[in-house]
Amino acid sequence: MTGTITRLPDLGWMLRPLTEIPGVRHAVVVSEDGLRLGHASAENLSGPVASLSVADAESLSAACAAMTMTGRSTSALLFGRGAGARQLMLETDQGFVLFTHAGVGADLGVATDLNADVGLVAQQMQLLVAKIGAHLSSLPRDAAAATS
């Protein structure tokens, strides 16, 4: 059985408005199953992760997908089947990671430092999703076509 691999477009350029918010370090668009659809880092960062490489962004994408899956499972457990998680927030010693549903099959994750206004960041994430959510979506991939 053979199939074709379709290269997904990099949606990182759409994340630039988020990385310009004071305190935002990184942003990533993730497919529901953990594939990186795009990422961006704020300019002039210092610290252990000053800029996300593609490999770092792919690892972050997998972690984001796991977190959102946990959120969906928890929602279903507490509120019944079909209850989805819209937003999640993880607080660490160094900052925050916010996740939000970004369209069909996609999520948006943003990492901030401790001084970020997380309310403003969450609001801007929602505005970005409302503005360009169709571009952030990741439709299910087709099954590979069998050939003889």
UniProtKB/TrEMBL annotation:
Coiled-coil region(s) at which residues?
A: none
Roadblock/LAMTOR2 domain segment(s) = 12-112
SMART domains registered for this protein in UniProt? Robl_LC7
Q: Which InterPro entries match?
A: Mycobact_SerProt_Inhib_Rv3364c (IPR053141), Roadblock/LAMTOR2_dom (IPR004942)
Superkingdom, taxonomy of origin? Bacteria
- The protein depicted here goes by the name Roadblock/LC7 domain-containing protein
